[in-house]
Amino acid sequence: MLRWALTLICVSAFTLTAAAAGNNAVSARSCSTRANVIKHLANKYSESPVAVGLAENGGVIEVLTSSKGGTWTIIITMPDGTSCMVAAGEAWEQLPKVAAKGPDV
After folding, report:
1. Which of 4, 38, 59, 79 is disulfide-compatible with 55, CB 3.0–4.6 A?
2. Alpha helical stretches, state H, the chain
3. Does the pTM exceed 0.85?
4. Residue 77 lies in a domain
5. CA dist., res. 82 & res. 48, Å (int)
6. Cβ contacts of residue 51 below 8 Å, gap of 6+?
């Protein structure tokens, strides 16, 4: 689980850096207040938060999925309150939790 969380944070950080360096118009369209982003994802895709974590840069990473598990979105909310959609897709599948077998798992 820890490795999954670290991978998610790394992918998110890379995506945000690439978006900021690449196409500012796209990143500006996918950012708003957290309330607006959550409302948009709930209304359009029936998504709600299912996981949350704190990134090293102070941002809060959230994973949202639809209740039927069809769609998913990853957002980051920065300390100033701005939330940006980092990644989105389909065919979300919730994996069952398994007991950790050691400190690295």
Report:
1. 59
2. 2-22, 24-29, 34-45
3. no
4. yes
5. 18
6. 62, 63
Locate 84 and state its tokens.
Answer: 């940006």
Range of the domain at 9: 2-90
User: What is the chain's alpha carbon radius of gyration, rounded to the nearest angstrom?
Assistant: 14
Query: If you search the block for the tokens 């990853």, which residue do you land on?
Result: 74
Q: pLDDT per residue over 51-101, tens digit each?
A: 999 999 999 999 999 987 789 999 999 999 999 999 999 998 888 888 777
Residue 105: inside a domain, yes or no?
Answer: no
Long-range contacts of 10-13 (CB under 8 A, 24+ apart): 11/87, 12/55, 12/61, 12/74, 12/76, 12/86, 12/87, 13/55, 13/56, 13/57
